[in-house]
Amino acid sequence: MSKNRVAICGVGQSARYQTKLKCSMAGLVREAALAALADAGCDWSDIDALIIGKAPDMFEGVVMPEAYLAEALGGVNKPVIRVHTAGSVGGSTAMVAASHIKSGLFRRVLTVAFEKQSESNAHWALSPSMPFRPHFNSGAGGMFAPVIREYMRRSGAPDDVGCHVAVKDRRHALRNPHAHLHLPDIDLQTVKDSPMLWEPTRFLESCPSSDGACAMVMSCEQLADSGKNPPAWIHAMAMRSEPSFYPWREEVSPLASRECAQDLYAQAGITNPRRDLDMAEVYVPFSWFEPIWLESLGFAEQGEGWRLTLDGSTSLDENGDIPWNCSGGVLSSNPIGASGMIRFAEAALQVRGLADKRQVDGAKKALGHAYGGHSQFFAMWIVGTDKP
Amino acid sequence: MDIDLDPIESIAVPIYHHYHATSAKAITPFLHAIKRGELMGHLSSATGKVLFPPLGACPESGEATHEPVILKDSGTVIGFTTVHLPIPGSKLVPPFTVANILLDGADQTCSHLISECELGDVVIGMRVQAVWRPKDQWDYSLENIEYFKPTGEALVDVDELKQHCLERAKLRVKNRVKGNSTEVHHA
CB 3.0 to 4.6 Å from A90: which of A36, A97, A301, A341, for a disulfide? Predict the structure, then answer.
């Protein structure tokens, strides 16, 4: 691997990840891009290439949106690259952008990921009819609910661990002006009383449908001091995938997840992620995926992840030693295609010291994580305050 | 022009996809089999595991699969969820239970509905049996099975079942004779 260092010099997000009926897709991506450019102290003319990511086109019913978004992003006469790896796409888009700096091909790039869920219905879009399978229309929640139930069976965790995650992440979201859901009165009972959607997953244990975009400006080391704020440095990146269906596939802790994390930690010299990292932004679209990923990513022993949730270790409000999803996470905002990039960008904001009310004191090293498809695509990075 | 137009925030534009699927070499015998009421899987010679539905390649090894295996229409519930959320365009009315069912003789689960029991009665390890639609409605579709119903047999320990299946697959690979015929096996 080349030794070229990659800096994240600018981060931009939608002012708020809510339903934005009055804003076009072009308007969404432009809002985030302008904010990222301002943070990086750059103009459109400083950008060598544009790397765009979003989840399936059926989420808006607009095929190849990158073709029409290039103008709104200052992409005329510049290389434009579209990335797609389902729900993990925001993460892999950031990695594709960083890889182009690392390779030396480009010196500074703008990367943007977005989704405008209000244009269509994601449950419908995720339930296509296939000629050789029965058609049930159960959406993403229906696909992941059996995985959650299997985790509960194996771990023997108390039934309300998911409800605790749902409360914790929504309380974090109150610190984040960008978060879609601001539910100041949420408590355990409210979550427990919310309607069951896909047993054992309740309404308030699920992510919302959001519109929004996230953008980053990345550059090579020589251009890293363009903005007034310090950059974040990429210490490690890893991506893995595996087929959605095969005999006895491990769905709770997929092989691709475990191997992706191992590769990532080896690159960054991390032997104990709970001790060596200061915080993590991890893709948790349904509450129980916090304990599931705590174990798969090596923050807890197998079968023990739920204990970290219950004892407050992952909570910023309870001064946990390893806060997860200080932004409120996917449970509080889910513009699907952008959700992975938001995780990566929030990790960068933390190590730059720019996370405002959701800042983890003295955070120097953070994990950004995304997964997608049938828990089959994984993208992860570790960013730091110091140069790697 | 100084016309004060009302903003148009949203108009419904439904999109329909009607596809004509051409079935590939591996799917064709599977679809013919399902039309005559048989469940056909493929044995992967690389892993010794039985794939269902057979898509023509073993996802683990990447090798083409050729050997058909006729499976029973009974199986075990490996995972499930009860869906309460209505989805646009769906013919199913919630609540309904969708299960990942391991057909007897298979190594890969398939999704199907569970019915003829209370929603809360479905559990991991439950034994189930296919309930077929009337024969004159059969098509090239797994929906020839309307749903699965509990058999009332004792619950199966799914960890033991997995172990048993993995050992069976290992044994198949070990006992494999080169140039094996493509005769139809019955699970």
Answer: A341
The number of residues in chain A equals 388
B-chain residues near A124 (CB < 8 A): 87-89
* Range A171-187 average pLDDT: 98
A362 shares contact with chain B (CB less than 8 Å): no
From the centroid of its chain, how far is CA B41? Answer: 10
Number of domains in chain B: 1
Higher per-residue confidence, B97 vs A131: B97
Residue of A nearest to B111 (CA): A134
pTM for the model stands at 0.94
Overall average pLDDT of the B89-111 stretch: 92
- Whether the CB-CB separation of A332 and A284 falls below 8 Å is answered with no
Q: Which two tokens stand for residue A335?
A: 């513009």
ipTM: 0.91
User: Could you give the CA distance from residue A314 to residue A329 in angstroms, rounded to a whole number?
Assistant: 12
Side-chain half-sphere CA neighbours of A65 within 13 A = 28
Minimum distance, in Å, between the CA of residue B78 and any CA atom of chain A: 9
Residue B126 lies in a domain: yes
| Strand partners of residue B79 | B100
Which of A190, A219, A173, A221 has the alpha carbon at shortest distance from A326? A173
Please report residues of A whose CB lies closer than 8 A to that of B124.
Answer: 149-150, 153
* Probe site for chain A from B65, B73, B81, B148 (most A CB atoms < 10 A): B81
| Percent of chain B whose predicted confidence (pLDDT) is above 90 | 72
User: Is-contact A28 A59, C-beta < 8 A?
Assistant: no
Which member of B13, B82, B106 has the closest CB to residue A199? B82
Q: Mutate which of A201, A248, A255 to disrupt the B interface (most B C-beta within 10 Å)?
A: A248
Domain that holds residue B60: 27-186
Report yes or no on B79 lying in a domain: yes
Residue contact A137–B92, C-beta within 8 A: yes
Out of A125-139, A178-192, B54-68, B90-104, which region has the weakest mean confidence (pLDDT)? A125-139
A248–B107 C-beta distance less than 8 A: yes
Interface of A with B in 120-159 (CB under 8 A): 121, 123-124, 127, 131-139, 141-142, 145-147, 149-150, 153
pLDDT at position A1 is 44
Answer whether CATH 3.40.47.10 is correct for domain A6-121+208-223.
yes
**A129-133, A181-185, B161-165 — which is least confidently predicted?**
A129-133
In a domain, B4, yes or no: no
Does B3 reside within a domain? no
